[in-house]
Amino acid sequence: MSRVLQLGAALCLALAMAAAWGHPSPHSEILLEGRAGGIGSSGVTSADVRAEITLPLDELALAFGEPLVETPSNHVLIGDERIAAYLAAHIRPVAPDGRAWTVRIVNVRWLLHQRPADVRAIVTLRPPAGAPLDRFTLQVDAIAHHVQSHMTVVALRTDEDAPARIIGTLRFGQRSLAVRGADPRWWIGSLDLFKLGMAHIAEGFDHLLFLLTLLLPAALLVKDGRWQGYGGPRHLAINLLKVVTAFTVGHSLTLLLGAIGAVRVPEQPVEVAIAASILVSAAHAWRPAFPRREAWVAAGFGLVHGLAFGASLRDLDLSGVRLAAGILAFNLGIETMQALIVAVAAPLLVLLARSPSSAHARRVAALCAGAMAVVWVAQRV
User: Is the CB of residue 318 less than 8 Å from the CB of residue 162?
Assistant: First the structure.
């Protein structure tokens, strides 16, 4: 077996291992809101902080080690008091002098009508006597204590009518975040959203697989309805530029519309369509299905992929200038990671196109991608 075929076999193995998740796992969200003067006030206060905590149900079930809801009836299998006790054990605000805050779970709601389903809790956080309300360390390891790849996004709103802003993300190795009151600068939190956009592509195997499968024959020429021969560096560069730009335009448009709430589509059909886009790309990589029209296909399916991107921002409840800055930062993160991946893939595409075993390796890769797409369609349906 040639080295190229061995590479194709290794690719299949990697795809098979990644098939279980396909899409980046949903993250948790914590929205902090001040009361009686708010987090933005300084000094000593007897007020508390309201926290709205949203946890993805599937990830929470992994942390509990047991099913939480019976399917398909949506019958809840555990009581709210167990969720409350779990949250109280895994959320620990600490004052600057090291004293622990009081954590009280007000209520728990099961959001089972949406996909993915969530558990949402309203929690009050009260500082010890004499401790400032606007300066504390938030320690959180809910879900992450068991699912190490899990991420929690923390946002802050200093007034009921004020826009929220991202103050940080908690990931493996970082389970605490310093909360330091209100910051009027609209760009605060943009770096975290930039990183979130990069992670969405790096961990979003289905988005990545669609783009790479569509680019698989980008270095090849079409003759008599078949992929034949290396077209040269200029041919490859033009194809890469067209496809990546079209995909960017497509997903940027629906990311914007989804983030501002102008377009709302149920998650399940979006996820099924994303998986179907990979299947279409795989068929094209096997044999030209739409030669010289790859950019149009990338733009069309980019609209679908952008709906998934937009949902990640919409749930953060940003508005105004912070929303505009957040959309820009998140999208720049997506494009940066996308550009890095394409830069790495380009020389590999050249090697593949110039190899004597090019056709066999390409078909092996297309077959693997198509198989993964079928698996994901079945799972998501």
Answer: no
Give the type of residue at 17.
Answer: M
Q: Say which DSSP state 25 is in.
A: P
Task: Give residue-wise pLDDT tens across range 210-238.
Answer: 989 999 999 999 988 899 888 999 999 99
pTM above 0.85, yes or no: no
Rounded alpha-carbon distances, angstroms, from residue 152 to 142, 188, 281: 9, 17, 33
Amino acid (one-letter) located at 16: A
- Using alpha carbons, select from 211, 216, 227 the residue that is nearest to residue 352: 216
CA 66 to chain centre: 25
Per DSSP, what are the bridge partners of residue 139? 92, 176
Contacts of 198 (CB under 8 A, 6+ apart): 333, 334, 336, 337
118-126/102-111 β-pairing: antiparallel
Average pLDDT over residues 316-332: 76
Does the pLDDT at position 304 exceed 50?
yes
Cα–Cα dist 247/211, whole Å = 8
Distance (Å, rounded) from C-alpha 52 to C-alpha 48? 13
Rounded (10°) angle between helices 205-215 and 267-286: 30
